[in-house]
Amino acid sequence: MLLIGVPGQSHGMRLPAGLEESSVETKWWHDAVVYQIYPRSFSDANGDGIGDLAGIIDKLDYLQVLGINVIWLSPVFRSPMDDNGYDISDYCDIAPEFGTLDEMERLITEAAQRHIRIVMDLVVNHTSDEHPWFVEARKSKDNPYRDYYIWRAPRADGTPPDAQRASFGGSAWEFDEATGEYYYHLFSRRQPDLNWANPKVREEIYRMMNWWLDKGIGGFRMDVIDLIGKDVDRGITANGPNLHPYLQEMNAATFGDRDVLTVGETWAANPEVAKLYSDPRRAELSMVFQFEHVTLTHDPVEGKWKPRPFDLLALKEVMSKWQTELADVGWNSLFWNNHDLPRAVSRYGDPERYRVESAKMLATALHFLKGTPYIYQGEEIGMTNVRFDSIDDYQDIESLGLYRERTAAGVAHEAMMEGIHANGRDNARTPMQWDTGSNAGFSRGRPWLKVNPNYREINVVAALADPGSILHHYRRLIRLRKERAAIVHGDYQPLFDAHPQVFAYQRRLGDERIVVINNFSPEPVALDVPEELRGLAGECLVSNYAPHQQLGERLALQAYESFAIAARSALA
Ligand code: TEU
Ligand code: CA
């Protein structure tokens, strides 16, 4: 049974007739839009070529103009930066290159003054090998911290305990000379996995989480959280037997009674598993990031390093499945990209011939769906992938590790570079493009990673000045989510389901009906409008060409043409 919160509590959202009186478990993040900041690449205030907290504070007014409500801040904790901060050596201190705890607290306060919450990135599947726990653990087999991590004796011939591989190349086991045992790491050898079966580990993590919650953060994004229930000896990594018990224990011990957003990064989630995480009755998380729409473009054997063109029918099937399966239980996150993924317009659009049209289409296609949308820094101005010719221009530990491993195994340099150009993580990590000044206004120093040369055309200043920019299109979509209850609470029906170029759907709530039609291709499309849509008329909410106020018997769409009509119609 669908119930809607009391109007005063729903951000002034105008509710459809007949639905005002009921009351539902609405959450503030149901109509919020999240903006992800990768701090190293966002804004550098002190000129050392690395983004920092002071730089983010300088840009809060911009984010307020954009209209976002939450910043998901990739890790800023003390770290040797082996994996750019996803290897933490002190969860309760800030990495000096990013700033200080005082600046972190100032960011929380200044953001709150602009009605923006800060969601921190919780990386607790592993720590850095420089974390004091690991420094202690490796001292001796009977050290009190030894089983904060996962150690195994070598096989008789001295080789690793098993053949498990690490995500960044090589074995998942690193031999430690001092104690003659291997330790387990699913990512780099400098990111030893924590042993979540040890209650002391869980207790220390919950204490740290409460320390940050007490500082007024708006929640947590949880890095590879589906791995914490791993059973190494049975070769189980994701969705392990203790995963959900641990999350329910974490919820009860930390954020459960706080009004915060929690989103798990769960590469191995399908809709059934996602319901386990996000069904409010289970008291685990608010939502998860699932990646089925991402891996569609990965080769089944060689993964992201052998990219496949995306097939819209497959993409639509995945998007519709997640909308339908989580319609009434749980909650969807909605995203095209993040700091690990290629730029949306390069992956799913056409950055050369139709960058603006296809970026706007992607934004419209995503932001009218049910769930919480996530915008990755630069997505709102249509930043694109980068194409460095030399592997030496790349910084990402994953790309460099797999380049070494795969070329050593015989993969041609050119083939591996194609994989890196298409799906390497540095695509998302080139510095944010603010203006046409040196280094795109990101830094007065030498940026840690080269700026994308297209910053002269693609930058925030140009986007703000252009009423037809992708940026202003995102601003409108963000605002509409606050104004149209059907976007947040409406149902979902796919339209033109079998069409290979068009992703279309409608959202309905009470007497409100929004029809969203997207040509996902550079080819013009001529459509026969189905009977039930003919004559539909109303307000054109957004369009990337001329507005559409009415649907007739035929509909001609130009390259990447996309629009949404809010139609008033009797309850069908
Ligand atoms: O990513 C998890 C992860 O598995 C990704 O690295 C993925 O394997 C790959 O990038 C596919 O494109 C999280 C963080 O988002 C990532 O930045 C970290 O490197 C990783 O965990 C380890 O903390
Ligand atoms: Ca800096």
Explain what you see.
It contains 16 helices and 22 strands. It has 572 residues and is an alpha/beta fold. Among the domains are: 132-184, Alpha-Beta Complex (Oligo-1,6-glucosidase, domain 2), CATH 3.90.400; 214-309 and 322-329, no CATH class; 491-568, Golgi alpha-mannosidase II (Immunoglobulin-like), CATH 2.60.40. Strands 11-10-9-5-2-1-15-14 form an 8-stranded parallel sheet, covered by helices on one side. Helix 11 packs parallel to helix 15 and helix 12 packs antiparallel against helix 13. The radius of gyration is 24 Å and the shape is globular. It starts with 33 loop residues before the first strand and ends with a strand. Calcium ion binds at residues 44, 46, 48, 50, 52.
Topology:
Elements: E1 34-37, H1 53-58, H2 60-66, E2 70-73, E3 77-78, E4 90-94, H3 101-113, E5 117-122, H4 132-137, E6 151-152, E7 173-176, E8 181-184, H5 199-213, E9 219-222, H6 243-253, E10 261-265, H7 271-278, E11 287-289, H8 292-295, E12 298-299, E13 303-307, H9 312-325, E14 333-334, H10 344-347, H11 355-367, E15 372-376, H12 397-408, H13 413-423, H14 460-465, H15 470-483, H16 485-489, E16 491-495, E17 502-509, E18 512-519, E19 525-528, E20 538-543, E21 554-557, E22 562-568
Parallel strand pairs: 1-2, 1-15, 2-5, 5-9, 9-10, 10-11, 14-15
Antiparallel strand pairs: 3-4, 6-8, 7-8, 12-13, 16-17, 17-18, 18-22, 19-21, 20-22
Helix pairs in contact: 11-15, 12-13
The structure holds 1-O-alpha-D-glucopyranosyl-D-fructose and calcium ion.
Which structural traits does this protein have?
572 residues; alpha/beta; Oligo-1,6-glucosidase, domain 2; Immunoglobulin-like; 16 helices; 22 strands; globular; binds calcium ion
